[in-house]
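RECORD TYPE: protein structure
NAME: Propionate 3-nitronate monooxygenase
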Amino acid sequence: MEWKNVLTDLFKTDYPIIQAPMLGVTTPEMVAAASNAGALGSLALGDLPAEKCIELIRATRRLTDKPFAVNIFVHKIDPITPNLEADYVKTKKHLQKLTEKLGIETDFPDIKEIKLTDYHDQIEAVLLENCKIVSFTFGNLDQESIATFKENKVILIGTCTSVQEAIVLENSGIDIICVQGIEAGGHRGSFLEETIPQIGGLSLLSQVTEAVNIPVIYGGGIYNAKTLLASKTLGADGFQIGSLFLGSAESALQDFEKHRLRNIKENEIVLTRSFTGRYARGIRNTFIKEIENSEFVLPYPYQNKLTAELRKTAKLEQNADFVSIWMGQSITSFSDVSTEIIIRNLVEETENFG
Ligand SMILES: Cc1cc2nc3c(=O)[nH]c(=O)nc-3n(C[C@H](O)[C@H](O)[C@H](O)COP(=O)(O)O)c2cc1C
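PREDICTED:
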């Protein structure tokens, strides 16, 4: 197995394996462990404020001198219109009643209290900290930001969930495409159509590699040598892996969440908008059952902000009925060893495969 390729050259890593950014799960320790194993760690910065981004980048640098990527959410924010405000009030009231009925005490913010992050502030922070590999999801960067990154010699990785999105990213000058199969855990990176594409990894990866001429990373369902090699056969240059690390020593998930993962049944893994307003794949629970097909789902990021405190309270109370546990379709033992060992084992298994 020859690991060296266009991506190991660009990233300066031993392997074209990428530890997926996972907001809420990824820690500086996980990123450093992945990079120290010769893969590319990815620090999830989501929509965190710029100061927090800087703190996390510096914490990671204290743990590794190897390259790692940072990852941000690039999304349009709907302005607060009277209609949105009315929907917000209605949804908040409903959630208050629901949580009272189900016995969890929490606060829901007013729409005026919500703090939204503009990704341009994060870009400034990332450039100040001299980060050289930036991945993003939920949208495409504007041309000015792309130009600024290029001037600073930053490698850009954009996420697609359809061939159309891949072409848009390539045409706007993004260096590498991360193809997200429907198997993937966490949020869908879809950004072109209101109705999101739900294309399986097999179909999507094969079609994207035929449609674009830039390097392609695949993410969604990779959990062992077989799945990694299957995506290589379909044309992937890099392998982005998330769920495999959910139970690892460096994961920010709590023990009750890891326990839930390790007892998962296949029919409990669902795509849902109920927690954040954007589709994400995770574990069905009481909150999802109550909200999913209701009128009480606001557009992202408003639903996300509205439910944030509830999820925080549920985590503190170790109440799996109200936390969002994101995971992909490949069920594993969710090993509790270090991310570094999980990666080294995967590399060895792949080298010895067949
Ligand atoms: C818990 C969790 C959180 C995630 N958060 C992010 C994120 O912050 N940014 C991002 O680009 N992708 C995120 N993803 C998606 C991953 O980047 C990747 O597409 C996915 O993990 C690959 O599929 P797999 O989970 O089957 O390995 C997340 C995935 C999970 C499981």
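COMMENT: The mean pLDDT is 97.
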